[in-house]
TrEMBL record, chain B:
Domain of life from the UniProt record: Eukaryota
Protein name, per record: Protein BCCIP homolog
Pfam families registered for this protein in UniProt: BCCIP
Family membership: Belongs to the BCP1 family.
Organism: Physcomitrium patens (Spreading-leaved earth moss)
InterPro entries cross-referenced by the UniProt entry: BCP1_family (IPR025602)
Acidic residues composition bias: residue spans: 35-49
Start and end residues of each stretch annotated as Disordered: 1-63
Amino acid sequence: MHLGVQFENSNEIGVFSKLTNAYCLVAIGGSENFYSTFEAELGDVIPVVKASIAGTRVIGRMCVGNKNGLLLPQATTDQELLHIRNCLPDSVVVQRVDERLSALGNCIACNDYVSLIHTDLDRETEELVADVLGVEVFRQTIAGNILVGSYCQFTNRGGLVHPHTSIEDLDELSSLLQVPLVAGTVNRGSEVIGAGLVVNDWTAFCGLDTTATELSVIESVFKLRDAQPSNIVNEMRASLIDTMS
Amino acid sequence: MAALGKRKAEKSPTPSSEEEEEEAGNGNEVTSGSEELDSDESTDPEDELNTSSDSEHSSQPSQEIVDVDFEYFDPKPNDFHGIKALLRTYLDDETWDISGFTDLILAQTTVGTVVKADEDESPIALLTALNIGRYQKCSCMVEIHKYLRVKSAHKVESALLEDFWGKYAREVALLISERLVNAPLELAPPLYQGLFEEILWATEDEPTQELRESFKIKHYLYLTKVFEEVTEEKSRDKEQRKQKEESEATGQLIYIKPEDEILHELSSWSFTFPVTGDGAAANQTKGLQQLRLVMAVDAKHEEKFQAELKKLIE
């Protein structure tokens, strides 16, 4: 199930929202349309929370999270942190991270089991990612870009990466992440996948400019066609990743 | 359109310009026209750069002169994102179908020009004209009409505007001219020359009679951005020692694109309205208020406009 959305005329919805299997964060915007689209689609399954981070609306790029936890930059105010913590399910650990590279959403990409991080991220942050998000952490680049969070988006079922990723890189990443990956674009040729698309195991939202071809690629790689939230909740999946030493 | 080189004596044919010459048919005429302008422009950019940097950093040993060549192209599908970015503030912060509007501009290959530093770069400037009667039913045009109708309510010009969208729709074209804030003034004359020529050729070259008629334009409707000078007066309330700030508009308009002033002088009617939303706040400079200016220009002033524009540059 996919939906085309716009945030105040911008198609970069991944900048203004964060979607996981357990919750959804949405920026406070001019019109209610953005929030109501998410609310209508997800409202009865997971909480949809309006939030700001460090007083900004670019929450999708500032934070990173999955069903286990949510990491916020140091600049997040106490009020914002409290609000988010209150609204999210108790099982989700919300933590502030003191990291020089504060746009965590650009530096870290993750699903519920694995994550890719920016090559220059601190060791402490890497450990926090592993602890709070409960994931295996890999330092990687995507098509030569160190901002892994910006140029790929992956869930427990599949992933979409920067269009210029080579076949060898695709295979390597796919074996690391243990999900099928495809190189493609979103929002009519935009390479910044993280900004144009938010996705979880049963729904995807992308900018209105996304073409039908791009949409069909997204539907097929993320296996959205016959996805239901109950399938995910009832499934238990063992981690299949060997440690790379 | 052919390439316009600032410092090139000879013209190296690029693949794009050859294609466009075939499409335009009369491309050779355009080439010779733009070559004449070369000598005028060759000294201006460097002068601009030298004077600005000299006055501030006269102690610095060397100034870097940046040579920029601007080339004129027909809008292509690749330019979608660039053109959309230029049109982002066209209706301030209204939510409307900008993508659809951009698609309309891209689809009209016969009339419309985009200025880029290089073929693969993003557009720096856009100039095109869309016949209102022809595109009236498109959702983006409906939204533009609604926006202008709302903004012109309670004004004298409201009825005139409605006529442009009503009975005169087939003779009116929406003039769309957007460019990056610091784009040089010298880009304007070839842009407008190209536009008027393309419209003229379209009246002859278009395949159907209906399309040919749609380019016989009698009026241009133009929406642009201007600033207005605002004086602030502070007066003290003696009893409570409060400071009151009162601002008064002086009515003095400052045009962001210099050719807008000429168009405004030649216009049949015009009105202004204040800008709403975040864009306005961001651009707030002390003493200046941002406005939108809507004007109607009669097509028979084309030549006078081009002559005035040329004088402005020299």
